[in-house]
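Please, structure for the following, as tokens.
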Amino acid sequence: MSGELAAGLAHEIKNPLAGIKISIEYLLEGSSFSEEQKDIMLKMGSEIRRIELLIKEFLNFARPLKPQMIAVNMNNIIDKSIAFSFKDTAFSKAINITRDFDDDLPETMADPMQLQQVFLNIFLNAVDAMPDGGTISVKTSYEPAAASIIIEISDTGNGISEELQNKIFQPFFTTKSRGTGLGLSISKRLIEQHGGSISIRNNLGGEQCSA
């Protein structure tokens, strides 16, 4: 019930926000404003887009879509996620990707779009942990005894303190100046909807996320 109320409120906020955004864009088409005034309106537009992103992620968290399960190859999903991630400007930095894939992974039932969202969130967090560039390593393996596919994603950043590790999947928790704090909490929920689990830990080279 609380999730429906939150989602309804978010939808109500989107409508006037869209009106404000359109009004700013209309005003910017005019030529009667000084450069300083235009700069202020551009900043307003940027903040509105930030609010829109927050609302979108909040809706995903408050009322997640039911997974559309199909038979998938997890290695292929990760490859597609990496390819999509490199279209993001954040990956224009000196970021290397290494793969250690188990070629004998069995197919599994999953929602490919939701899993790509999870991997993209993790990759972008890894990039943020390496402001001067570094390496993201992805390893897949299969545990026959548990009938489980293991995915390990690590980076060469400085790692994360134990205190923050306990908070990292909490909604709205973020260490970023412009983050929403919902990306990893949504990722956790999506993984759990698939019957899996996700965790994070420090290693010698940086931080590591396993699902």
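The longest strand covers residues 134-143. The mean pLDDT is 81.
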